[in-house]
Design goal:
alpha/beta, rod-shaped, 632 residues, eight-stranded mixed sheet, 18 helices
Amino acid sequence: MTRSLIGTAWRRALGQKNWRRSVLGACVGLLIAALILLLTQLGLLDALEWLTLDARFIARYLVAPEPERSPVTVVAIDDRSVLEYGRWPWPRAVQAELFTAILNANPSVLGVDIIYSELDDAWADSRLARALGQGQAPVVLALARAGDRELIPDDTFLSPNVRVGHINTVVDGDGVVRRFAFEVNTAQGPVRAFSWIVASLASRAGEGGLKAPPLDASGRLLVNYRLAGSGGRLSVDSIAETVSAADVLAGRMRSRLAGRPVLVGVTAAGLETHDRHLTPVRPLGSIPGVYIHAAAVSSFLDGQYIHRTSPWMGALAALATGIIMGAAAFGLGPWKASGVFLGLVLASGGTALWRFTAAGAWVPVAPVSLTLIVTYAVGLWVTRQQAEREAQRIRETFRRYVAPEVVDILLEDPGIAETQGARREVTILFADVRGFTGYAEVERPEDVVLRLNRYLEIMTESVLLHGGMVDKFLGDGLMAVFGAPIPSEDHAEQAVRAGLHMLRRIELEKKVTSGRRERLEIGVGIHTGEAIIGSVGSWRRQEYTAIGDAVNVASRLQELAPPGTVVASEETMAQVGGGVAMQVTPLGATHLRGRAKPVELYQLTPGRSVIAASDLKDVDDLVPPDDPAAFE
């Protein structure tokens, strides 16, 4: 019942024609959404969806940056460290000294993003192993697997206090690291992620105290790059606090290491021994891999992960978006449809960003956005095609009957013509050439057609000049309508002026053709009343016209009009102002065929004033250029 009422209200608001278009548009939008969801299932939109995810990381930083820095500290073997202690790799005795300084600062755990899969000098290796194993804090060493090759720390560096975690990341097709495997299989068995081991050792409750991360079907999870405000400047310090290894070796910055998870990694520029990767935070450029692990450790410790929402919710959102956008794009005008499009874009984008910022929820945006764009574009294209067809129909319907200026107005507002049918007060004019039948019997056919066309041309120009519409030609006469297709408040006066103008033009035509034998005249009938206007006919051929009693009365008045006069009804004369130059002769109440009540009639003839130049075209236009005999 409720849906029926809503549908009825929507149909009334749009109108029957636009309602049908809206239903068609909803079906088209539904089809487009279904096709886009199919592309999504095939994985063809993954790259686009990755880009929308990257944009959300940046937007989250701009809208709601993390209020506090990450709990992780990165000890960076940076450019300053290399400048002071030499090019990397340093002697392992120096590395042992660095690890000893860090462990003496009492961090909660030390993660070393450096692979010690090969031995060096025995004494230096032994010193490095003692430095890693004798501290109070646990240590995690890095393991990497590249295809069939495994880079595993040598047993020399392993001890009960030293754990191993893999540092493998997943590089997507666009070169961006967004995910990593939670666990990889090695020759020594499954090994969990380096960042997970570090976080579990940093947590007092161990692995059991960490919230289980959401994994995809391949056992991978997304890195939650949470960015803290760093003095209004975006840098790797937004991911984790950074301390230079040179400061640690010099005995400084101990307070920034105490009680915190500490990761050691190489960040110096120009070194081929450390990894650098693009991340969703594109403005940072390529960053050292140790910061990717730092972001993952922070996410594990806080239990804040990126998780994908149910695919069914995304599918329903895309289908609903297609239906709404299709109905709007097909049923509403371009401006209203654009408003709906903008509203849906803001609603879908805003919802996705809000869910991402508030709960780390990854709501699929690509299917909805693509459905919006494609449906909106198709709707605009279809609407444009419909508008062009409507414009062509208007041109074909009215170009022979009204002035070009009227056609332009109709093209701007096609609905003003009410081609589907409407009642409207109009003024009808009938004009007929008197004595033409006898003239046609004695003259050559080509002369008859020439003279008839000339007279019809004069009458047509008079109608168009005064804002009327030539409805149709009736043998040796015509029917014209004033007040349609464009409504006019002074349609009655326009019709009277047009009728008098015809008489003046015909009188002038008779003067310039005084040498000819014919003395043709015209009679004009004008009546004002309510008529039905619209396009009538079959689907093969239609014409825009007026029908009703007002048409019949005007036709009867034309039959009563003597040659060279206009007969107008009382209804018409009541709306004519005093500025028309004419002579009026009352004819009294007259009974017309088909009407029970008599009609008050008036006979009009042009006034005594000279024909104004502004009211006529050049005299040259009054004589056909191919008829020089008219001047004889």
